[in-house]
């Protein structure tokens, strides 16, 4: 940020009165331009076939991580709820009809200023279809997942939480909410 | 937003290629200026005294809702995790030493482009002290809560979820995550 979006004057980094952090502040109109984390919302859509649980993954047709696999997810938009964002991204990226269940993972990624939320979901049918941001959409059982080709650490971690919980569910347990924080690593977010 | 923060040229509302929504786009350098929801993170700090559960509320010293009561909460900052934001806001607004527990409520407020997250917490001691954004900080049992003077609907709802869960916990149940969506009402957020 170099210029004020309200008046076009240059901005400068300084700590406003009653604040403790440097912000971009306009040198003319004094508007403070706050910058805050973004929310990424997605789903973990599952399909039961012959007693086997499969998850729906999308092969990315866009950067970052072009060609890698991800759960359907994207930036939450203004004027929508988390659940609406989850439904919208699943339709846009995977063309998938889902029943949305409860919030499953809440993942902070401070080095890219993001919080990722994934909802558990069930596919209503298998009429999914890659959207413009996906090269392919496919179902994977646990042993079929291309773990080395997962686009984002938050997606890999959510899948791991899911298959761990699934073992508990099969012995009378329940799915539960998982919180996890990611710090800077070699793998881009 | 009237001007581009990268080059100071005017912006115009238009739908970028491969997009479905109007964005502010620079008329000179074509930068797309996305606007997305903000995350508000807070805590529900509790204190057990003589078998009675009390919650810590702050009387707001700032607008909006000056003079109304709220749970300690505020905008999440870049470069921090949700849990760090919860701890920081509790210290800044209430000077309270807490043990942070699990995420308790996830509340979408689409008409103000916000998602509110509240963590359950336990006070470690009663050496709390109003910060610069609070006129007062005090403990309230369920029947003492000034329900008509609660600053935000998300705070009132989180308190209601808490006391409902507390009744379940006393009969062998557990606290659980609560999701709720708020739509436009007479009460400002
Ligand atoms: Zn300005
Ligand atoms: Zn520009």
From TrEMBL, chains A, B:
<dbReference type="Pfam" id="PF00293">
    <property type="entry name" value="NUDIX"/>
</dbReference>
<dbReference type="InterPro" id="IPR029401">
    <property type="entry name" value="Nudix_N"/>
</dbReference>
<dbReference type="InterPro" id="IPR000086">
    <property type="entry name" value="NUDIX_hydrolase_dom"/>
</dbReference>
<keyword id="KW-0378">Hydrolase</keyword>
<dbReference type="InterPro" id="IPR020084">
    <property type="entry name" value="NUDIX_hydrolase_CS"/>
</dbReference>
<protein>
    <submittedName>
        <fullName>NUDIX hydrolase</fullName>
    </submittedName>
</protein>
<feature type="domain" description="Nudix hydrolase">
    <location>
        <begin position="36"/>
        <end position="163"/>
    </location>
</feature>
<dbReference type="InterPro" id="IPR015797">
    <property type="entry name" value="NUDIX_hydrolase-like_dom_sf"/>
</dbReference>
<dbReference type="Pfam" id="PF14803">
    <property type="entry name" value="Zn_ribbon_Nudix"/>
</dbReference>
<dbReference type="GO" id="GO:0016787">
    <property type="term" value="F:hydrolase activity"/>
</dbReference>
């Amino acid at each position: 940020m170099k210029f004020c979006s309200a008046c076009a004057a240059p901005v400068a980094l300084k700590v406003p009165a009653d604040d403790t952090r440097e912000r971009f502040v306009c040198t003319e109109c004094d508007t403070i331009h706050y910058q805050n984390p973004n929310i990424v919302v997605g789903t973990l859509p599952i399909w039961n076939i012959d007693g086997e649980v499969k998850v729906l993954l999308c092969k990315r047709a866009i950067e970052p991580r072009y060609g890698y696999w991800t759960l359907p997810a994207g930036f939450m938009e203004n004027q929508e709820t988390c659940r609406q964002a989850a439904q919208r991204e699943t339709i846009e990226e995977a063309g998938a009809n889902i029943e949305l269940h409860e919030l499953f993972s809440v993942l902070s990624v401070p080095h890219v200023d993001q919080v990722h939320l994934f909802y558990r979901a069930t596919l209503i049918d298998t009429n999914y279809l890659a959207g413009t941001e996906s090269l392919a959409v496919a179902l994977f059982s646990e042993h079929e997942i291309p773990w080395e080709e997962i686009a984002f650490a938050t997606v890999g971690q959510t899948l791991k939480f899911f298959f761990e919980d699934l073992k508990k569910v099969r012995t009378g347990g329940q799915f539960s909410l998982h919180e996890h924080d990611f710090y800077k690593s070699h793998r881009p977010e």
